[in-house]
Amino acid sequence: MFTDGSSLLVIGSAIYQIPEWAEEEQVPGSTAVRFFGTWGHVYREEVTNITVVTKDGTFLMATVIVMCRHSLVGMRQRTDADTCVSNGDLCCNLWVGASDQDREGMFQWVNNNSLTFTHWFPGEPNGGRNEDCVQLCNNGQWNDESCSNNENALCEKEL
């Protein structure tokens, strides 16, 4: 931990500075979380234990950001997706915690657990253009997308 409260995370040969999360701020209708560091401010909207981090970033960046306090969501059942989708515009093209980066066509959660539930959009996953990471579309269905795209992230926390 550094004097500014941040710490380092090493993933492979890459080193990322993880910013320290400050206190949560009450905002009417939501809880905002602010951290200071290379990515500016992150705000989240509470949806039960599911959180939308409204800061665009790549899949890896989203994984790094939410490691501060959350994990990318690993949907275990259809109601997890439905809960998010029922909250409208918050859930539009969000990273969820699944990819097939380790083995093409074998999607798993970032914690290495197998998928026990899927809800792919028709024709997906198609693996086009190095599409290895899973995003939740605003209709609740999944799409495989390039991990280098900038998207918001769907995260979860233990209650």
UniProtKB/TrEMBL annotation:
Keywords noted in UniProt = Disulfide bond
The superkingdom listed in its UniProt entry is Eukaryota
Q: Which InterPro entries does this one have?
A: C-type_lectin-like, C-type_lectin-like/link_sf, C-type_lectin/snaclec_domain, C-type_lectin_CS, CTDL_fold
Q: Is Transmembrane among the key words of this record? A: no
PANTHER family the UniProt entry points to? MANNOSE, PHOSPHOLIPASE, LECTIN RECEPTOR RELATED
Q: What is this protein called?
A: Mannose-binding protein C
Source species: Magallana gigas
